[in-house]
Amino acid sequence: MCKGRTMMNEIMWSNVIAVTNRRLSARPYLEQIERICIRHPRAVLIREKDLIREDYAHLAARVYDICRSHHVPCIYHSFIDEACSAGAEMIHLPLHLLRKYAGRPILTEFGKIGTSVHSREEAEEAAALGASYMTAGHIFATDCKKGLPPRGLPFLRSVCEAAEIPVYAIGGIHTEEQAEEAMAAGAAGVCVMSEAMQI
Question: For helices 29-37 and 53-69, what crossing angle results, to 10°?
């Protein structure tokens, strides 16, 4: 973990999309989701992308219920049919899936559609394909991308300048200072995984 002020103060949570990863959870998974939701982040993104469709749907439904009980927006990841069946209002699609589904009626089921980008060109494409927001990374060094150099704040600034939709910085954000640096570069907020799953 990076040194610096702890990130998860009450004000900062309103700028955070908490990204789930049950393998990092400090306690039983649903208990951890509850702990996240009582802090009222901007949203909870149910990543868990290693799960098969049926297992994801079952777990996501339980997370969705917890989020709703705390009035926290809940974002399904990748599994578009399962998100529709659950009545989810938000979906996050990797860019290759956004390309696949762009223009199809099924996307009209969602109030907000997110995607992930790794270049200024992808940011421009994502906006053109109808994304409502995007995540851009990885910004700082992270164990999730071990050995891969971070793209850094200049990259984030470039993406934010190119995008006409909100951009959320992702990758290696562990401190309040890093979150503030990302937002100073133009990000609408930040995504955190390990910090969220360890609170």
Answer: 40
